[in-house]
Amino acid sequence: MLSESQRLIYKYPGRIPIILEPLYNDTPKLDKNKFLTPYDVIMSSLMAIVRHRLRLRKSEALFFFIKVGAKLIVPNGDLLVLSLYEIYKVIDGFLRIYYGSENVYG
Questions:
Q1: How far is Cα 103 from Cα 96, in angstroms, rounded to an integer?
Q2: Burial class (CB in 10 A: 0-12, 13-18, 19+), 30
Q3: Strand pairing of 95-103 and 15-22?
Q4: What does the alpha-carbon distance between residue 76 and residue 73 come to, in Å, rounded to a whole number?
Q5: Average pLDDT along the chain
Q6: What's the CA gap between 30 and 50, in Å, rounded?
């Protein structure tokens, strides 16, 4: 029996299964948290999509984090999502990215 991520990869070849979750309780929530992104998407493009979906103001910064053990790392914006997936996918086959927003002005 295939896991959910394996079914998605089989059904949509060339796509990466991602789960986006807010890092803090007061962070705005997305309408859905599971996404399939093409292999060639870079992190800054994914960030722009998430910013748009969250309807963040220009004065609000968006940060992505990946949990590695007890640590949080901030992925570089010019990395391919595929590279991060190959390194940091979790046991369920998804790449889990946590996001947080901060008011940067004022």
A1: 24
A2: middle
A3: parallel
A4: 9
A5: 91
A6: 8
pLDDT at 105 over 70: no
d(CA 11, CA 74): 30
3-state percent helix, strand, coil for the chain, nearest multiple of 5: 25, 35, 40
DSSP 3-state assignment of 74? coil
Residue 90's φ and ψ, nearest 5 degrees, are: -90, 180
Consecutive H or E run containing 24: none
Q: How many angstroms separate the CA atoms of 91 and 19, rounded?
A: 13
Amino acid 101: pLDDT:
82
Query: Are 60 and 102 within 8 A, CB to CB?
Result: yes
All structural domains of the chain, each given as residue ranges with its CATH number in brackets, are 4-103 (3.10.20.90)
Residue-wise pLDDT tens digits, 86-97: 999 999 999 999
